[in-house]
Predict the 3D structure of the following.
Amino acid sequence: MSTAIKWFWFSSPQTFYPLAGRIAAACAVGAALLAAAGLYVGFFVAPTDAQQGEAYRIIFIHVAAAWMSMFLYVVMAFWAAIGLAFNTRLSAMMASAIAPTGAMFTFVALWTGALWGRPTWGAYWVWDARLTSELILLFLYLGFMALQAAIDDRRRADRAGALLAIVGVVNVPIIYYSVQWWNTLHQGASVSLTRAPSMASTMLTGMLLMALAFWLYSIAASLARVRCIIRERE
Amino acid sequence: MIAAARCIVARDLLLALRRRSDVATALLFFVIVASLFPLGVGAEPNLLRSIAPGVIWVAALLSSMLSLGRLFAADHADGTLEQMLLGAAPVGVVAAAKVLAHWLVSGLPLVAIAPLIALQYDLPAPLYGTLVLSLLLGTPVLSLIGAVGAALTLGLRGGGVLLALLVLPLYVPVLIFGAGSVDMAAAGLSASGQLQLLAALLVVSAAFAPWAIAAALRISTE
């Protein structure tokens, strides 16, 4: 019962503002520490890969960024849907605060993927199913941000963006599977992202540390941005 | 409800009939875009034959997107749209009727003229059936998805470019299955799997898109 009251207490932008500041600061510190630990493990502790040499080390950033890029879109659509259904101001603000971080991680995932692909596959870009759907995810993020930016009326911008995010999140699985089938139809399994099944435990540790660091960074960045939005609007 | 839908379809068709040049422009755009590709990539027949399904489908995507701007804009400008939203008929039905009219005006002529483009690209005659069928199943999906974007961008500055950014990523599955079905048939395989997936997309979008369009129209006009 008391938790329920607290939830609604903090759903108001005025009361959420100081809380967001505290959480953002704590998460930023946590993200920095975890990222330092993760990068240390990734660059100095984890063994060199037998086939890919040192180039594989970029996956410590790449994989975590790719996870976040997809996860953040779902979170964004979740807040957008809550905002549309219950007409809560803060939910819509959260959705627009998450979008730039999600787009950034999508771009980072594509960029690091390209840098990894050059030495490993011999090409910066191949029309692999995952790459293509990640690219389309980037377009969806940019479309969401462009739509919100084009509408001057904040209320309409929130609601229009929310509807687009919901339509997008319904489409993401369809796009993903269609691209996958398209890919297998055209060029067989010439390129596969699956690595050797036995991954050294230090590699896994490094990857998990980086994933956690990116989680905390996402929370910190979104909350910092939502504070700016609250200050702008309230 | 049916009467309202029929009334809207008849009205939009009549309006399109009175302004025939609008319809012709989108169709001409389709033909011109498709005719540019051989000039760009060269007229080697085997190459043209292999890119034909993709080119025709991409041109269809662009052409159908081009005409989306007009879907609600005129009605929004003169206030008809608000009256429709206030009227007794459910907004979803209104939206579905407007999309149907839009498809009859912009999608169906495209399906009809596609074999002509296929002829230019020297596509083997047995593939015409698959091409036309895939367009017949796919272009209504384009109209349905596009209408959501058109409703969201109603009355915005730079609406046309924004519409492209919103709608084109969502068109990807239709493009893949549409062009894929013709590719399958060209490879001597059965295209029925891809065509059934297109049909599934049509059924799903016909069921859900009118709701999304109605919600988008309410957001844009309030």
